Amino acid sequence: MHSPKENAEYYLSVGETKAKLPAVKAIILGILAGMFIALASVASTIASSTISNGAVAKIISGLVFPGGLAMVLIAGSELFTGNTLLVIPLLARRFKVGQLLKNWVCVYIGNYIGSLIIALLVVNGGVISAFSNQVAISTITVAVGKVTLTGTSALFKGILCNFLVCIAVWMAYMAKDIPGKILGLFFPIMFFIISGFEHSVANMYYITAGLLARTNPIFLGAAQMANESLNVGALTVGNMLLKNLLPVTVGNMLGSIVFIALPYWFCYLRDSGKTTAAAGKSKK
User: Fold this and answer.
1) Does the residue 277 lie in any domain?
2) Cβ atoms within 10 A of the Cβ of 71, count?
3) Taking burial as the number of CB atoms within 10 A of a residue's CB, which of 128, 203, 214, 271 is the most buried?
4) Of residues 173, 199, 201, 203, the one with CA closest to residue 185
5) Nearest to 72 by CA among 145, 172, 160
6) Domain range for residue 261?
7) Residues 65-99: pLDDT tens digits?
8) Which residues contact 186 (CB under 8 A, 6 or more apart)?
9) How far apart are CA 159 and CA 166, in angstroms?
């Protein structure tokens, strides 16, 4: 595996390649990543939907969901939350701010398109009707819970989430083989799922699937019967964007930049340019 310093230097070239992707490729690879994370969300929902013990249900979800990030990193795709680490090569002056912003916007759009595709296929394909509509109940309930979070809660849970997601990405890059990468990313992702933190790309699927499921009278009726106090009226596109995705996305960015990107850049890369310059002068 790479040492922490070697990993920081390795990520400079990785990040530079990502930031310089053409917009079309960034969107397409973003779509793939959105689909991978959405499929992990589907599987974790199905796996935990019939478990009445909340703690056990979260553990089961936590064991399943890391497969999504494994697909993203090993198969090769672009995930917005992971790409917030591009601040590291930006600080090392490997590319300009405009290239960073272009990558973030294109990948974010791609991630949502991928999430939407999976949500449409899953809901309209009847996948969430499994276990006598228990999966549909979970899908709608989870979505309502996410759009009724307070702004502060969504922000803070977003910070905590991407702190863990980006250390998972960082550890995966440290490994030089596939088993090492999977092991490196597994536990931080499991921790964020068990803890109930908020991931903007996963929420693109969770809330969109809930919105789509709500339009089906059978799924909606099952959810309301299971929980009469469920505030299904709060499940709107506006609330998805303003009450969840906006604060969670900001939180995800802060968690990555403040707790991962800046510390690793400061400790391992801040003086690398000075060291190189000094070495060049000494040779002269």
Assistant:
1) no
2) 18
3) 128
4) 173
5) 172
6) 4-270
7) 999 999 999 999 999 999 999 999 999 999 999 99
8) 66, 70, 168
9) 11
At 198, is the secondary structure helix, strand, or coil? coil
Take residue 272 and report the two structure tokens written for it. Answer: 């690398």
Query: Looking at the domain assignment, is residue 166 inside a domain?
Result: yes
Tell me the per-residue pLDDT of 51-69, one tens digit each, with 9 for 90 and over.
Answer: 999 999 999 999 999 999 9
Q: What is the DSSP letter of 243?
A: I
Q: Which alpha helices (H) appear in the chain, and where do they start and end?
A: 4-19, 23-48, 54-64, 66-75, 80-83, 87-91, 97-124, 130-147, 151-174, 178-195, 200-214, 217-226, 237-239, 246-256, 262-268, 272-283
Tokens of 85: 């680490």
Amino acid making up residue 194: I
Query: Residue holding tokens 């959405």?
Result: 38
Is 179 a domain residue? yes
Task: Give residue 135's identity as a one-letter amino acid code.
Answer: V
Instruction: Please name the residues in contact with 26: beta carbons below 8 A apart, sequence gap of 6 or more.
Output: 78, 102, 103, 106, 107, 110
More confident: 273 or 29: 29
The count of domains in the chain is 1
Tokens representing 44 are 């974790």
